[in-house]
Amino acid sequence: MVNSPRTSSTNNSVGKGGASTSINSRSSQQLIKASLISKIDPVNPIQFMFNPTDLQFSRTIDIQTQKGAVTSKGLPKVVFGHVAPYELNLSGLVFDTFEKGTTVIKEIQPLLDAVDFSKFPSASKKRQRPPVYYFTWGQQNYVQCMVKSLSCKLTMFLSDGTPVRAIVDLGLQQVDLGATSTILS
How many CA atoms, within 13 angstroms, populate the side-chain half-sphere of residue 141? Predict the structure, then answer.
């Protein structure tokens, strides 16, 4: 992960009405949307219509067993392989355009394009690699990543068949591009 969570002191004093003053001050703050900021086009981030309800990080370590080799206790001997990159899974992301009466496809198109990276401009005619993003939310830069998987389900339609709600599951995988990855880091 790029940064560790920020820590801050909170005022837990209780006002006359019994409500915590820190809760009241937080509710008056502007809502900041989670987004994927592309290294290719940092002025046009992919903003989520509704923020995720949770962030699920996972990481594995490759441990290889040596066939036929056992320890004095009879357990297989193991060799450390490597540490895999972080994966961040965002599930149940809601995109809804029912009140506008417009197609939700326009709202999710930037995510669809993230896995169809052939649409991104390239200096050469060769197929380029997927775009690199930073997953950010507020002041927190969580991970520099590529979109590894995308699942989209259209769940609500107008009477003429126009899709107006989509539920999206997104799998992001941490990438390190070395010294060239200096934006937002």
Answer: 13
